[in-house]
Design goal:
The structure is a homodimer of 395-residue chains. In chain A, the strands form 4 sheets. Chain A has a 7-stranded mixed sheet, sandwiched between helices. In chain A, strands 11-14-13 form a 3-stranded antiparallel sheet. A two-stranded parallel sheet of chain A has the order 1-12. Chain A has 2 domains: 140 residues, Alpha-Beta Complex (Aspartate Aminotransferase, domain 1); 241 residues, 3-Layer(aba) Sandwich (Aspartate Aminotransferase, domain 2). In chain A, strand 13 and strand 14 form a beta hairpin. Chain A is an alpha/beta fold and 395 residues long. In chain A, helix 13 crosses helix 14. At the A-B interface, helix 11, helix 14 and helix 15 of A face helix 11, helix 14 and helix 15 of B.
Chain lengths: 395, 395
């Protein structure tokens, strides 16, 4: 078989659009060159609508985790209290970061595969009245859960003075995010998920409340000191050398999002989620997550009783398609399909048909074609509904 | 939808492997530079096994048609007689080229969609004893027919002194070709089909008999004078400036073919053909070509009675997948699926599932999932058989 031909259906890094790849191949420029300043200014402003903020978005060179730590390190210091809603491995990471800072962490642990619902958070906040900030995960990459961030942040703002930090790494760009309107104090994201770039850039949208809180925070920080990014951005630059080629690519990504239109981007992601879920169900496989908690960007599927999800992943890899495994205690128990960024409904059909062949080849019970058919029917149904709604709008 | 994401399932140009694209991005070199000479020497020799010849393969800069014309222009002159077996648009092109040279052309017209069978050729050759050369098409791109070239060339060699010219443009690299053993005098191919390159290079494998015939041929020629290519190749170069970046890519393609192994390349193409045909049949669509005449590189499918194949093609394009239409009198009556070069079985499944959705969306009768299922079952069956044969070899 063609050894280097594969479909990357993991929840990040995601495939790079060819025009973005080309843009990143442009000749290097100096990071203090006026061309780079123009680029920094343009992309930080054009990211605003993607994060739902009027402010320019800060550009960090680092992985998503660097932005998670930046949020924590700029808002909290040793001995202060923070609440972390842990719905999976990335909520857990927030807690680990805060623990490393010797912050007093109150964990609200939710069963992996379920979202945190507002009532749970209400009760938890009442128990911990002194928390300075609440850390939430928007899409929990490890489980495919989309937490109801708008509602959760709303409850925090209604009931407490705490700041809210949201990890949007694996969904911003693929689902609506309204940092300003929802009252998120720091919304962070990474480049390598729905934003269709290689890893290496992280982003943070910061509220005025958060800037105020940072001013007096004694926690030691240098590379991740967000106020330096803010001051630099006022001069259209970054405090240190940024990943310049990724900035070239980001401009192209923003063009692509503009051309498709954010509403269409979001409905494409919802459609891919619905098709994936319809296909998985038709194959009699078990989804980790209920419909109401499901993310449009990633879907986790439980392994079977008579076959190993790791064997399935290996077989899929042989067929030319890559999905992710489980993390921590879900390792070997689930597999995860990414459907975000440079992905479209045909990718979902390819994934499901590969899954059908792979299941058969590892000897798992499978009705070939059933998953693909269900996903096709979902696509046909949605496109008919779209057609009708376009017609009605036209009348 | 993602406007620039599409699957190119036409019978050429075919998708370019990323590593080939990268190789072609290398800095330009002069065409008389020693590095370019080494490259010309290497690729012309390494192409030999792909064409089944001990001789270095000539490298022309031009489309496939330039090599078809080169074969004609070097072997024949005004007033001489040639036989052309026309099984579709590309056999017809050979006849047009020869007519433009004022060669006396005897056409053996075979119904489009069928191969020429050796008995038909026998009878035809008897009627035309003075033909100097017989022009044959290996894979007829316009119909998806693979003519039985080994047998046809064998009959010509057995019964006549005529030279044989074979158009292998849309299959060499995807099916076994043995120019020397089968007695083909000129076998030509293009870069943009099973050889996974952009258009711009054409190739010719030439026998000693053909070189002898060329020596005395008075037909005027300059750019397409094959003897100049031969003389230049003896000095590891080309008579004119070659498409250097395509030569960079060709070296990478030859590495890929070596790494996969030609037998595996051929069985991958056969599998894609079988999967496509199984899928099309399961969808109750009509194949243009019978199994025994079918090419592993391209499959033609008839349009329906209640829907237009052009509407289907447009809808597929909207979904993110491109197939070709019919040519000449088959225009609007068939569509053609390419499955060659940088293509794998998952591409066939993607194509079939897209086809199912597109048929439904244009209101054609379709059982969603049925084609995908049949193709999956074919893949599963073949992989089980391969597994058994590996096991047996192991015993």
């Amino acid at each position: 078989m063609l050894k280097d031909k594969y479909r990357l259906q993991i929840p990040g890094p995601t495939p790079i659009p060819p025009r973005v790849q080309l843009a990143m191949s442009r000749p290097m420029i100096g990071h203090r060159d006026p061309d780079c300043s123009r680029l920094v200014r343009e992309v930080s402003r054009r990211l605003g609508p993607v994060f739902g903020t009027q402010n320019p978005v800060l550009l960090l060179t680092g992985s998503g985790t660097s932005a998670l730590e930046a949020a924590a390190a700029n808002l909290l210091a040793e001995g202060e209290e923070a609440a972390v809603v842990v719905t999976g491995a990335f909520g857990d990471r927030f807690a680990n970061i805060l623990n490393s800072m010797r912050v007093k962490v109150h964990r609200l642990d939710v069963e992996w595969g379920k979202a945190c619902h507002p009532e749970q958070l209400d009760a938890f906040l009442e128990q911990h009245p002194r928390v300075k900030a609440v850390f939430l995960t928007f899409c929990e990459t490890s489980t495919g859960v989309l937490n109801p961030i708008r509602e959760l942040v709303g409850r925090v703002r209604e009931r407490t003075q705490a700041l809210t930090v949201v990890d949007g790494v694996s969904c911003v760009g693929g689902v609506p995010a309204e940092a300003d309107r929802w009252g998120i104090d720091i919304l962070v994201a990474g480049s390598q998920k729905a934003l269709m770039l290689p890893p290496g850039l992280a982003f943070a949208a910061v509220s005025d409340r958060a800037w105020n809180a940072m001013e007096t925070n004694p926690h030691p920080r240098f590379y991740l000191d967000l106020s330096n990014y803010r001051k630099s951005l006022e001069k259209d630059t970054t405090p240190n050398t940024p990943a310049v080629s990724l900035l070239f690519g980001l401009k192209e990504v923003l063009d692509m999002l503009d051309e498709e239109g954010m509403e269409t981007v979001f409905s494409r992601h919802r459609l891919m989620m619905e098709m994936t879920r319809a296909g998985i169900r038709a194959l009699d496989l078990e989804l980790l997550t209920e419909d109401r908690d499901a993310s449009p960007t990633v879907t986790a599927v439980k392994g079977g009783k008579t076959w190993s999800s790791e064997d399935l992943r290996k077989e899929l890899r042989r067929l030319g398609l890559r999905v992710a495994g489980g993390q921590q205690h879900l390792k070997g128990k689930i597999f995860r399909i990414g459907h975000m960024g440079y992905a479209d409904p045909l990718d979902v059909l390819t994934t499901l048909s590969a899954l059908e062949v792979a299941l058969a080849r590892i000897g798992a019970p499978v009705e070939t074609g059933a998953g693909t058919q269900a996903a096709e029917e979902e696509w046909i149904r949605v496109s008919r509904a779209d057609h009708r709604s376009v017609k009605q709008t036209g009348n």
